[in-house]
């Protein structure tokens, strides 16, 4: 029987975390762990699919495994969300900032497989955020936040404990992700 694992996709905003998470879902049928946020939805985002969108009161009624304040908004992931995902499939996947990824590694040990995505060129990151339709004001706020800048490099606490994938060319990224996943499929 395959052991329960959660593939934690982390890295800076715009580095491709959601793209990788969706690939893992489509290609390997990994269950997606939906997280909670007080951030307003983007035009294409749906409640219960992309996030559970909360207000500053309802957010704190959840039972979080970890939560963070990122670029002025709250984000958190619950134990229930992870357990629900594992009920669907032994391999689950979640998108977190690097602070969340560190907490997952500390709390879940080998059950958490951390993939840190990097895009070296910050102009390219901004182009990708604009390309998916983020408004210019949101992008400017994001790139000036300390959390975005912190997440451009793999944090010390994840070194030696996370896979690093440079997400420039998607075909190369996909093949590196496939290699990592194959290590954990029974
Ligand atoms: N290798 C790639 N080459 C070009 N564009 C890419 C690549 N990977 C992802 N993208 C595109 O970049 C944009 C940002 O990707 P994505 O939304 O997955 O990033 P993210 O890390 O989840 O961002 P955020 O944390 O802000 O939600 C999307 O439009 C996506 O299609
Ligand atoms: N630690 C956590 N980080 C989370 C969670 N849900 C999302 N995120 C990360 O927040 C930033 C911003 O996300 P965005 O959708 O507004 O661009 C990004 O790094 C996400 O990965 C969570 O529950 N915990």
TrEMBL record:
Family affiliation: Belongs to the guanylate kinase family.
Recorded superkingdom: Bacteria
Protein name, per record: Guanylate kinase
Residue ranges occupied by any Guanylate kinase-like domain in the UniProt entry: 4-182
A cellular component term, taken from the record's GO annotations: cytosol
Keyword entries, A-Z: Kinase, Transferase
Known function: Essential for recycling GMP and indirectly, cGMP.
Gene3D superfamilies: P-loop containing nucleotide triphosphate hydrolases (3.40.50.300)
Pfam family, one: Guanylate_kin
Catalytic activity annotation: GMP + ATP = GDP + ADP
A GO MF term: GMP kinase activity
């Amino acid at each position: 029987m395959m052991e329960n694992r959660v593939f934690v996709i982390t890295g800076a905003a715009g580095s491709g975390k959601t793209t990788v998470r969706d690939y893992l879902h489509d290609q390997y049928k990994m269950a997606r762990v939906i997280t909670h946020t007080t951030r307003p939805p983007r035009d294409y985002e749906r409640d219960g699919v992309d996030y559970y969108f909360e207000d500053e009161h309802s957010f704190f009624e959840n039972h979080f495994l970890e939560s963070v304040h990122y670029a002025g908004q709250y984000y958190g992931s619950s134990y229930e969300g992870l357990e629900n995902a594992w009920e669907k499939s032994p391999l689950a996947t979640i998108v977190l900032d690097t602070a969340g990824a560190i907490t997952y590694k500390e709390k879940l040990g080998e059950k958490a497989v951390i993939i840190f995505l990097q895009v070296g060129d910050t102009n390219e990151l901004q182009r990708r955020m604009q390309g998916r339709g983020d408004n210019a004001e949101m992008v400017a706020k994001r790139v000036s936040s300390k959390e975005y800048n912190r997440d451009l490099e793999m944090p010390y606490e994840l070194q030696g404990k996370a896979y690093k994938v440079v997400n420039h060319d998607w075909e190369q990224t996909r093949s590196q992700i496939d290699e990592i996943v194959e290590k954990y499929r029974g």
